[in-house]
Amino acid sequence: MPVLCSSCSHKRAVLKRPKTAHSLCKECFFWAFEEEVHQTIVAAKLFKQGERVGIAASGGKDSTVLAHVMKLLNERYNYGLELMLLSVDEGITGYRDDSLETVKRNQEQYELPLKIVSYEELYGWTMDAIVKQVGLKNNCTFCGVFRRQALDRGAIMLKVDKICTGHNADDVAETVFMNILRGDIARLRRCTDISTTSEGEGVVPRCKPLKYAYEKEIVLYAYFKKLDYFSTECIYSPNAYRGHARTFLKDLESVRPSSIMDVIHSGENLSVREGVKMPVQGTCDRCGYISSQALCKSCVLLEGLNRGLPRLGIGKHHRLHNKILSQQPLTEKEEKKLKSVDF
Ligand code: SF4
Ligand code: ZN
């Protein structure tokens, strides 16, 4: 006998919600998913009427669902937002060039303006060229640091008040684990925040409307809505550390689906005891971007690339940073250390 939808009780259920285990028909699932995102937005007061909001769009499932749902809720509930898509082209042949084609189609499908900023134009380096120099072990460090700044620069060009990103509940829970495993207390404290306030000049506030949406539900939503998204993994994606955190979380989820929400909840309620040393936020002497050191991570990484010393920004080399930046010569041993690359 067909199972009936536990919400409307008259249509046939086509799926079991990963988050609640309710059997639902397609329409009731769409409604439940969209309403939860709406509740998240309202409860956290993520937007104000009249704001210009940039949606960070990669062409992947999360950001495609985010763009679709943001447009829909903006119309359904009269948020009064001016939405636009913002993409970063990291310069990864065979991956980002293809996914950007998806974003360009999304731009037409959703009738939203699109701005693409590229690493090549901002930094003079594509990820393809960076990987040639730094190898496949630390490439995601370069990419992550550059992306954060690239999104801010793009947001400033678009004159948006806020950026929203497609981070989902699984991403947030994974990040909680990673920060615990690394002992990164400063990041642990802020990684469950649903939005950031402007941390300074050149930094645009960000928010995560899908913070409580399970990845499995995002996939189901995109699938049943037949959304046009790109699902290939980055060709330079080793990121083994996050991979372990992800596998661990997926194992926990298969035993107890609420694990994802429970980890987020734990992260949200942690507090840091008084007296724990935290980095002091200042600005980069070179580019003016926020930084807890004299130079921001992006400028250090770039300096390393331009000098053929790729390890300069990897690990703790603050003494050597200062030496290089004040134009003091390096010893042969120091030079060798900063040149070595793990492929
Ligand atoms: Fe960049 Fe690494 Fe992500 Fe690829 S996997 S897009 S290199 S951060
Ligand atoms: Zn800088």
Spell out the blueprint of helices and strands.
Blueprint: E1 15-16, E2 23-24, H1 26-43, E3 52-56, H2 61-76, E4 82-89, H3 96-110, E5 114-118, H4 119-123, H5 127-134, H6 139-158, E6 162-164, H7 169-182, H8 185-190, E7 206-207, H9 215-224, H10 240-255, H11 259-269, E8 282-283, E9 290-291, H12 297-306, H13 318-325, H14 332-339
Parallel strand pairs: 3-4, 3-6, 4-5, 6-7
Antiparallel strand pairs: 1-2, 8-9
The structure holds iron/sulfur cluster and zinc ion.
GO molecular function, one term: ATP binding
Domain tRNA(Ile)-lysidine/2-thiocytidine synthase N-terminal: 53-233
Pathway: tRNA modification; 5-methoxycarbonylmethyl-2-thiouridine-tRNA biosynthesis
Question: Summarize this, please?
Answer:
This protein is α/β, with parallel strands linked by helices.
Rg result: 22 Å
Q: What is the mean pLDDT?
A: 91
Order of helices and strands: EEHEHEHEHHHEHHEHHHEEHHH
- Classification by helices and strands: alpha/beta
Major β-sheet profile: 5 strands, parallel
Number of helices: 14
Unreliable stretches covering 5 or more consecutive residues = none
What is the multimeric organization of the chains shown? single chain
The geometry reads as globular
Strand order across the largest sheet: 5-4-3-6-7
Strand content bin? 5-15%
Q: What is the CA-CA span between the terminal residues?
A: 56 Å
Give the number of DSSP strands: 9
- Binned, the helix content reads 40-55%
Q: What are the bound molecules?
A: iron/sulfur cluster, zinc ion
